[in-house]
Each structure stands twice: as structure tokens, then as C-alpha cells.
Amino acid sequence: MVGDGVKLRPGTRVAIEGNLFCGECEWCKAGRHNICPFSGQLGQRTDGGLAQFVAAPEYCCIPYADELPVEQAALAEPLSVAVRAVRRGGIGLGSRVGVVGGGTIGLLTAQVARIAGADTVLLVEPHPGRRALASSFGAAVAVTPDEAEAAAGPATGGHGLDVVLDCAGARAATPLAIRLTRRGGRTVLVAIYPGDLTFDPLDFLGSEKELVASMSHSYTSDYPDAVRLLETGRVDVRPLITDRVALPDVVKAGFEALVAEPQNHLKVVVDPRQPDA
Question: Cα(225)–Cα(220) distance, rounded to whole angstroms?
Fold first, then answer.
């Protein structure tokens, strides 16, 4: 169903970009809707999300090709986060890139960095299965956190890492990402966690590094670009989908499973269409 004035036709397949914003503040007027101070999410500030039906604003609905499987289109949102992070990092042809954290966002970021032209991608992740996935996605080197600092130089021919993206969501990861960044390089904060950030300001200042944040994504550029990457098959999300659960099972087979065994799950796809799918 569509509302009055909506240009989308009923039956159109869409990937839903769930960010909400006011549209009136200075950031929205500048096109930076992702940092609107009144921002929220579908299913967070509105009904919907984990439901059989949800009412979404038209701008949230990005059409995608019928040939793209639904469960792959469902990963457009995390992929758009990776697209924005790579942009915020200024990654381009010849960049030497580090990614700290091999969860869904980190593994997608590694793929997008390669597509953007990165010469080398080093991924830091404690779990061997995720390191193996990173290698299959084009990471030149995949190491544990303890191995990372020793590996950065040899992996880049002594050049060092121009851009390091923290996708881990763990307190110890951000200082590591900053240390891994070469002199004059850039560290991008992608992951979210509470608390203070501690690092060596003397090293940071003396090497004139940059620390930038990458918040979610833009619905006007990052999200449509993510959908196009999925449609063309340039980004492979299939290995990231570890679980497929029906809507009534989302708590036990989804949330609780992720908490109990995070190493065994990456992306849980919830199918709201069938109660016993």
C-alpha cells in the first residue's frame, strides 16, 4: 500500500533506509541528515521494525532490482554504513587501509575499501573464522589484535596504514586503531560504545594524525550506492548471513543467540512474512 502523493508503485521492491530526521535544522538543510539532533530510527521512534507491516516515509524506500534476493537487500543498511566510513576516510586508489573488527560492518568495510581502490587492506580480528572471511573478501592480511602493530609495516612494504577504521565496538579497539595509523594518517571511528576514549595525545599531536567520526549513512548517497553495489554483485554479503529466523523466534534465535555465542553469528535475517518460516 502507498499513501497519497507517493510516486512508488505498489509491489515495488524496496530496501528501507530507517533513519528519521526533522528536515528543518541547519544540518538537515545542509544535507547532513545523519547528524540531525532529532534523528531516530523506524521501530525506535515509530511503530514497526520487527513487525509484519511497517509504514515508512517514501524517502526511506530505495527500489532495487527484482533479481536481487530479498535477504541480500536486507543488508543494504549495514553496507551503507561501510560506504560512508570509506568516504569519511578518504580512501582511494593506492590507499593502505586497516580495519579493526571483523564483524558485519568491518567485513563489509574491507570489501568497500578494496572497491574504492585500496592497495592493501589489513583486518584485525580475534576470531579465526572471521579472519578467514576477510581474506576471502580481499584483505591482504588478517591478524589478531596482538599481531596487528607488528604486521602493519610488513603488510604495506614499510609505508604504514594511511587510514584505519575502528569497526569493533570494543573500548580497546580505538586506541589500537590510532596507534596503527601512520604519521599524518587518519583514524575513522565507525563503531559505537559508551564511555571515554583514552589515547596518547603526545603521539597523536606529534604525528599530526586525524581522528574523524562516521555516523550511520546518508540516504541521498551512501544508501543508494550500497543498493547498487548489491545489485551488481560487487559486494558479496552471502557469507555474512549466518542465520535466518522467523519473526516469532527473533528473541531466542536472534538476540539471545547473538549474546550467548557472538563468534558463531554475524548477520541474523528475520523473515516477517511467515510465522513459521
Answer: 9
